[in-house]
């Protein structure tokens, strides 16, 4: 039969070739091109419809039909029939497939076929499962502090399904299946600890990457379980758990650690140290502290001043000034700042101090409620900074300082540590809450930073609230600007307020008194910001500012620049800065904290302290920052005499502070 088929095929080829050769002298140029194509591709031409042949030679369907008639056939169908003769056995599967593709299947048939395939897959999966290995994996999952699900390419979908289903049994499950592929997963696994579990799912293309990531993670002390098409290897990995992804970092109180992962739109995670939980704790005892601990990380209690800082406030809501880095281990947490600078204790009245504490307390309480209700870290920092923008005590939004032209130009940025997505706007003049515009950029744009009119057009398209420029005016800020303008210099934040107060004695009756601020307005860096850790272990940061008094139009500081004034990465920490913007830009201060944690493997406290107390002063950089990592450590260092700051953990009384 093979011999007969070959003979028939040869005869068909010879017959067509003879016809084309005989007709060639009389064919038109386009028909000759078509004939040459058929002679060079007899088998392929036999599989082509008339429109396909016409397209491949750049002719029309009518031209292809005329070509068939020029060869002596009634039309293209008869030409193709002759061409196919002898290829029937070879082309039969092709024709069946073509017919199947072109026929419209009934809806019931599609559903039945899908269910049949799914049932077959489930059956094959069940029969391939090693019960002992499965039990070992279940025990490993329940015993783990955190469960990381690793998948790339096709297996990313399976990783997402596993994450979703495991969340019903474990409070800290994190998918590492993201658009960044294995390199993204490697970064997220960089700071895993002993007690973490890595589950790897891989199809052939990414098997090597998955195994290598698991092996590298094992060197850090975590346990791994791998599932791929080579079941024997998978079972072996499961039966003999390998320490996979963990940095051995000091336990609670020693140093911070920044690593907890999640995807930007999915659930958030948390973590807790084994020392805090105890080696023999039951799963339920371990899971709850894990969630709380991560939350605490976000709010950060760390460097609310230098180590050994003293208490400076009342025993209630604005209690102590925390030490530089203090590990927390229970609830989700949020931390905020409202600027740093030189203290004016002498001129500060109890009522003035209380006003600032009350404002900080109100903002923290709002962010705390977001986290308590299960909101994301991104939601919490958005709400906190929005409220700070609405408060005229701080230089952001309403109460922003004036430019040299007597206008307001506002900047803001926000970043999601679970996905490294960010959004920012600068030089906006009519958007009531720039931080909301920045978040819209993050969520609804492929870009990161919009400026000026472009930023306002984008914000308008998103339906954000616009106000008249006069909304941002306050009499105190206006007097500061007049003083700065007369002296022909730019002043940071509330620059000139105290001088304006002292120089206006002759007209105080006609003017609103300039508020006495706890921090010297002449030496205060005006920015507001928030960092947070949610109950799922994700971190986020947001920063907003009105700039500097009497600044040149178009001047942009560090606030809207990702890495300078704002940065967040679940693998390390979330940071919001306040200070001399140009210096923070040159130092890329916010990112520097995260980079030191990632590449030097230092704690949050050590990294933040080095940036603020060592690196920035070398270029005359003054100010501070707030930061939180994925274990609940917070750092709030500043190299000035004071910084408006506070933090709040879910279920606990907010803490606010101004002095060291």
Fold and architecture overview:
- The strands form 4 sheets. Strands 6, 7, 8, 9, 11, 12, 13, 19 and 20 form a 9-stranded mixed beta sheet that branches.
- The termini are far apart.
- 52% of the residues are buried.
- The radius of gyration is 34 Å and the shape is elongated.
- The protein is 44% helix and 17% strand.
- The model is unreliable at 1-8, 228-330 and 492-515 (pLDDT under 50).
- α16 (350-372) runs antiparallel to α17 and α17 runs antiparallel to α18.
- The protein has 24 helices and 20 strands.
- By secondary structure, the protein is of the alpha+beta class.
Summarize this structure as a short list of keywords or feature phrases.
660 residues, alpha+beta, nine-stranded mixed sheet, five-stranded antiparallel sheet, 24 helices, 20 strands, 44% helix, 17% strand, elongated, disordered N terminus, DNA-binding
List the helices and strands and how they pair.
Layout (H helix, E strand, L loop, with lengths): L1 H22 L5 H12 L1 H5 L3 H8 L3 H10 L5 H9 L3 H15 L4 H22 L2 H13 L3 E5 L3 H12 L6 E3 L5 H9 L7 E6 L4 H12 L4 E6 L2 H9 L34 H4 L5 H17 L25 E3 L5 E11 L6 H23 L4 H14 L19 E7 L4 E8 L5 H11 L4 E3 H10 L13 H13 L3 E2 L4 H7 L15 E7 L2 E6 L5 E7 L2 E2 L16 E3 L4 E7 L1 H7 L1 H12 L3 H12 L7 E7 L3 E3 L6 E8 L5 E5 L1
Parallel strand pairs: 1-2, 1-3, 3-4, 8-9
Antiparallel strand pairs: 5-18, 6-11, 6-12, 6-19, 7-8, 7-13, 10-14, 12-13, 15-16, 16-17, 17-18, 19-20
Helix pairs in contact: 2-5, 4-5, 9-13, 11-12, 16-17, 17-18, 23-24
Protein name: Isoaspartyl peptidase
InterPro entries: Homeodomain-like_sf (IPR009057), HTH_RpiR (IPR000281), Ntn_hydrolases_N (IPR029055), Peptidase_T2 (IPR000246), RpiR-like_SIS (IPR035472), SIS_dom (IPR001347), SIS_dom_sf (IPR046348), WH-like_DNA-bd_sf (IPR036388)
Keywords: Autocatalytic cleavage, DNA-binding, Glycolysis, Hydrolase, Protease, Transcription, Transcription regulation
